[in-house]
Write a structure and sequence with these properties.
- This protein is an all-alpha fold.
- The chain is 72% helix and 0% strand.
């Protein structure tokens, strides 16, 4: 029990630190509402602690199938750290922020080709926004989108070369998919495959659709607000990493469906041998 509590406390602390990370890395002149950020971090950390301390899962998928959730956390943290250094460069330039700034602008320019998500993110900025803010959004979008692609490739390598999730022992569907009810309607494999494909399609389309939605609802959310460093970090991170997480979730469900199908074929083969 003590080991489980310690593990849950560490995970909750890491999530809380992730929430407040931009406020810690950005200069004081670029931060806003630290009380709200601290409260959000405490709530998120407490929620993760309760989830991992409990014997029975409630909402977090693939809880006992490392390193899926760990890798997603690491890539989100990496994205937020780099974007924080990028956004903080105009306020407090250092050698590290200058390096990240050069890298981000190079990547943003390289990925800003016709109809790319990075180009759409740049085009959603209003005409009255200063050019440097537009360029900064382009650089942040390019860097974040590259990290999201790397995270997807990393998980694909885990499945291909490390035989995820079987490399960690037996896979418990109930524990790792608490929101999936195998007793409700239709074949389990078919439902998993259908849900996986919907997640993958949604994850692929979301970086293209969100900038268009922002432009359509500019009266509600003004894209010019991305000039605020904290808001830009959160919005760009969510724009890039949430779709990547959806794609990874879809890939994981496809892998689970494939394992169930393999187990069924193995049982059918054994049954045929016994009949013979």
């Amino acid at each position: 029990m003590l080991a489980r509590m310690t593990s849950a406390a560490i995970r909750g602390l890491l999530v809380a630190l992730l929430i407040v990370l931009p406020s810690l890395l950005l200069p004081a002149a670029a931060t806003q509402s630290p009380e709200v950020v601290a409260l959000t971090g405490l709530l998120a950390g407490g929620l993760i602690f309760a989830e991992y301390f409990s014997h029975f899962p409630s909402f977090l998928e693939f809880r006992n199938a490392p390193p899926l959730n760990r890798s997603r956390f690491i890539f989100v943290a990496l994205c937020m750290i780099l974007l924080s250094l990028l956004a903080g460069h105009p306020f407090d330039p250092t050698g590290l922020t200058a390096l990240v700034n050069k890298l981000a602008f190079s990547v943003g320019h390289a990925l800003d080709f016709p109809y790319s998500p990075v180009q759409l993110a740049r085009l959603m900025m209003p005409a009255h926004v200063p050019q440097y803010t537009v360029d900064l959004v382009q650089a942040a979008a390019g860097l974040a989108y590259l990290i999201s692609l790397i995270s997807i490739g990393f998980f694909a390598c885990l499945i291909r070369f490390r035989n995820w999730p079987l490399s960690n022992g037996a896979f418990n569907v109930w524990v790792n998919l608490p929101l999936f009810d195998p007793t409700t309607g239709g074949d389990v494999v078919t439902r998993l495959q259908r849900d996986a494909k919907m997640h993958i399609i949604g994850g692929v389309l979301m970086p293209f659709v969100l900038p268009a939605l922002v432009q359509m609802t500019s009266s509600i959310f003004d894209p010019a607000l991305l000039g605020s460093p904290q808001l830009m970090i959160w919005c760009i991170t969510g724009w890039s990493m949430v779709p990547a997480s959806m794609i990874i979730r879809g890939m994981a469900r496809l892998r689970v469906a494939d394992l169930i199908e393999q187990k069924r074929r193995s049982f059918a083969h054994d049954k045929d041998l016994q009949a013979v």
